[in-house]
Amino acid sequence: MRILATDMDRTLLPNGSWEADENAIELFNELTRKHGVLVVYVTGRNLQLTEAAVTEFGVRPPDILIGDVGTSIRRYEDGSWQFDDGWTAHVRRVSPRWDAKAIRDAVADIDGLQEQEPEHQNPFKQSYYADHARREDIMVAIAERVEGRFDEVAIYSYDSMDDKGLVDFLPNSATKQTALEYVAEEYGCDKGEVVFCGDSGNDIFPLTAGFSGVLVRNADEQLVENVRGAMAKNPGLKVYFAKGGFMGLNGYYTSGVLEGASHYGLFDSSS
Q: 10, 17, 34, 6: which is closest to 268 by C-alpha?
């Protein structure tokens, strides 16, 4: 089984400030289908926003959608989405103290933290905008009020296009990393057989969890530094840094995803 998992915004999708190769998405659609690659999108987007991106950018639908920063899993079968109820049951079982409302109440008075719109919330995801300049103080305040009380993780990331900090509270069993581990186990794949591509802060966990990692060429500098630091501490980690050159592509966005997938042999006819 060949599994290619990728973040969407500014990883697979060319919606940042870097130059994109015009034919990269067409090549992605063609090569993943030609070589029978199981495609998994691992994204902060919900289903509606994912479908909007598929339409806007002309990218193929995934076989599996890990959405809402890992808190939901859906399969694309016979032209429709099927929700994975087993994942929901797994999260409730492994993170029994999770309580989104209690977290909301606990962080309500933190300066610089603003609750995101209702469409960005779900029963396993409580999300906020954060003042990026005050991120250290905000995360300290969060830790004082929340850490360890609700079987939660608090993940900080930065949206460079909108210049906004983002904080997602998730059950500790329902992140991009744990959801992808769940999918890999369902398909009988070792983590090292799964390629994961990312570009920004909340991708650090799957990139350093033992999957075959890929950083697209336009990845955030802080993430690159953090991944290199993790690799120095754990030489067994496999992460490929896209630099351009595969099929004449520049390594940004979709081109970097393709380059990384090729590096790990997903497009080899013999594999």
A: 34
